[in-house]
Design a protein that fits this description.
It contains 9 helices and 12 strands. The protein has 2 domains: about 150 residues, Jelly Rolls (Sandwich), CATH 2.60.120; about 80 residues, Arc Repressor Mutant, subunit A. The protein is elongated, with a radius of gyration of 19 Å.
Length: about 230
């Protein structure tokens, strides 16, 4: 379910998001207000598909609050999660730039409030502020590097090391190292079954390297986990 709200109802409103994001913050208050006037706020519930692979790429999204996951469906019906994008970040930039179809599905990982800027409003801004284009290319390159690393991990790391790297990466972005995620969601990110995920997590919980709760995993001993990858 989703709804479109008037600007200003999000926990982190559009103007604050624009002022803090590296892509927009140097534009100045006047341009932030202008972009905010173009923007629409859209609230979506957890599990809502925001857009699907192949949809027209007509807008850029920014997350005022919440988290989304970038995913794609294999021919066998399994989901592969490419990325988790959090509050204060943007997504949908690839199709926005080239005008082509969306390259993946994006699903609300939590309840979210999103800022939506139409392509017709955003492209003139890029033309008049070429430094923004450079920053957008830097963002694209960063995400391409992450995707390349994921492919390398799938090819060269065993399942246990892939799980470790995912836990460490997610814990670095989470307060107090506690990750709000289910084992089903974790299995889609790592590319291993939930049963295998649970079995390995229970071993590490027994060693007190992690603690487990309902949709919660807290990393207690990151150095111990990191040694697993170093020895792989």
């Amino acid at each position: 379910m989703s709804r479109t709200d008037p600007p200003g109802t999000a926990t982190s409103g559009p103007t604050a998001l624009l002022a803090n994001h590296f892509l927009f913050r140097d534009l100045g208050a006047e341009m932030h207000e202008r972009l905010s006037s173009y923007a629409k706020l859209k609230t979506v519930e957890r599990g809502t598909t925001i857009f699907s692979k192949g949809d027209p790429g007509t807008s850029l999204f920014a997350i005022c609050n919440g988290t989304v996951q970038v995913t794609t469906l294999s021919t066998s019906g399994k989901n592969a999660v490419f990325n988790l994008i959090r509050e204060g970040e943007i997504f949908g930039e690839i199709a926005l730039l080239d005008g082509g179809p969306r390259t993946a599905d994006v699903v609300a990982f939590t309840d979210c409030t999103l800022m939506v800027i139409d392509r017709r409003d955003f492209l003139p801004l890029l033309r008049s502020h070429p430094e923004m284009t450079i920053k957008l290319l830097e963002l694209l390159c960063s995400r391409l590097r992450k995707t390349t690393e994921q492919v390398e991990d799938l090819l060269f790391l065993d399942l246990r090391s892939r799980l470790v790297k995912t836990l460490l990466r997610l814990s670095q972005m989470a307060p107090n190292g506690e990750i709000a995620i289910s084992q089903d969601d974790l299995s889609q990110i790592v590319g291993m079954s939930r049963e295998m995920i649970n079995k390995q997590l229970q071993v590490w919980a027994k060693d007190q390297w992690i603690s487990l709760g309902r949709r919660r995993i807290a990393v207690l001993q990151p150095d111990a986990l990191a040694r697993i990858v170093a020895e792989d």
